[in-house]
Design brief:
By secondary structure, the protein is an alpha+beta fold. The chain has 2 domains: 230 residues, Endonuclease III, domain 1 (Orthogonal Bundle), CATH 1.10.340; 137 residues, Nucleoside Triphosphate Pyrophosphohydrolase. The protein is built from 14 helices and 8 strands. Helix 8 crosses helix 11.
Length: 381
């Protein structure tokens, strides 16, 4: 047999093997797939919404948010015309609030540029605010049946084990190779089902720790399993140690007992959410001085601060951690009225109105304490 003939034979065997693996994976998926509300529709709006929510969020956490969101904003027109404060309030607790802001902006793009129809061309989808290659591939394959492999963290893990790819999956070139292999495996007649099957496999069987290889439909072709080296994949270089910051905020009341809150700049982390004014401790300054300094810098007011915080909250973000210290504070009589120094809005709200505003999770714990104090006080009167 000539070299070319041998090559064609090997290619035929490989293609046949891939087709067999695809059929096996898809059959497995049809038998075991979990019920999720976004799997009962081909509506690109709802599929897009679910994919945005599921980024960095578990299915069980995202589902109640998804159901509340589609009840309040059943289509892209309703979302586009919504007030961003309403969107953020409904999103509160899911975290990564830029997802919600981008979702809102993209809805306005779809209405303004595509007459309210979710686009079905890759270049138009990728141009929408907050949509990257993974989300574009997921929506186009599931809603429109287009042959794009959706590669998220679950799929990266499956592919790296299946092909025993030992290079660092944090590297861009390695991720590119994984996407190439995923596209080569893709069942082009059922791309949406294939992508969901791969994600389901990574989420329920090919898990980061203690994978259930005995339940895997691809075990006979998985190189890591065949070489008894599953635990070696995927390889990730050590992540950088997350820094820790101390944040101090002032809870200020006016003569009517209302609380002073300010909105974060839209372009900042947690942009558009409301918070108690304050900021990061500088050097070894006392936390009470942090409150005084920050409120003067942010709102132009001088305050007296109680010596001890009434609430301390530890919270972790993706790239750093914080300890949030909340202090009761009082505006000096000679200080005058607050005036935002950064142009962002602030307002005075009654304690029982705090639930109407979207707060970051750490600040929300403070509002819950204050609301509890308010209710206990009301009960005593």
């Amino acid at each position: 047999m000539t070299g070319k003939a041998q090559g064609r034979t090997n290619q035929t065997v490989t293609t046949h093997k891939q087709a067999t693996d695809c059929r096996t994976l898809l059959d497995w998926y049809q038998q075991v797939r979990r019920h999720m509300p976004w799997r009962d529709t081909f509506d690109p709006y709802r599929i897009w919404l679910s994919e945005i929510m599921l980024q960095q969020t578990r299915v069980d956490q995202a589902q109640p948010y998804y159901e509340r969101f589609v009840h309040r904003f059943p289509d892209v027109h309703e979302l586009a015309k919504a007030n961003i404060d309403d969107v953020l309030r409904l999103w509160e607790g899911l975290g990564y609030y830029s997802r919600a802001r981008n979702l809102h902006k993209a809805a306005q793009q779809i209405v303004g540029q595509h007459d309210g129809r979710f686009p079905d061309r890759y270049d138009e989808v990728i141009a929408l605010q907050g949509i990257g290659p993974y989300t574009a591939a997921a929506v186009l394959s599931i809603a429109f049946g287009q042959p794009y492999a959706a590669v998220d963290g679950n799929v990266i893990r499956v592919i790296s084990r299946f092909f025993a790819i030992g290079e660092d999956v944090r590297r861009t070139d390695v991720q590119k190779e994984i996407r190439r292999r995923a596209n080569a495996m893709l069942d082009r007649s059922r791309p949406g089902d294939f992508n969901q099957a791969m994600m389901e496999l990574g989420a329920t069987v090919c898990k980061p720790v203690h994978p259930e290889c005995s339940e895997c439909p691809l075990q006979n072709s998985c190189r890591a399993y065949q070489t008894n080296s599953v635990e070696h994949y995927p390889f990730k270089s050590p992540a950088k140690k997350r820094p820790h910051y101390h944040i101090a905020v002032g809870v200020v009341r006016d003569g009517a007992g209302r609380l002073l809150i300010a909105r974060r700049p839209e372009e900042a982390m947690l942009g558009g959410l409301w918070e108690f004014p304050g900021g990061k401790q500088e050097g070894d300054e006392p936390l009470t001085e942090t409150v005084r300094r920050e409120l003067e810098e942010e709102l132009g007011i001088r305050v007296a601060v109680e010596e001890q915080p009434f609430e301390v909250v530890d919270h972790a973000y993706s790239h750093f951690t914080i300890t949030l210290h909340a202090f009761h504070a009082t505006i000096h009589e000679e200080s005058g009225e607050p005036a935002a120094q950064n142009g962002e809005p602030f307002t005075w709200v009654a304690t029982d109105e705090l639930t109407e505003y979207a707060f970051p999770k750490a600040n929300r714990k403070i509002t819950q304490t204050l609301t509890g104090d308010y209710r206990q006080s009301a009960d005593r009167t």
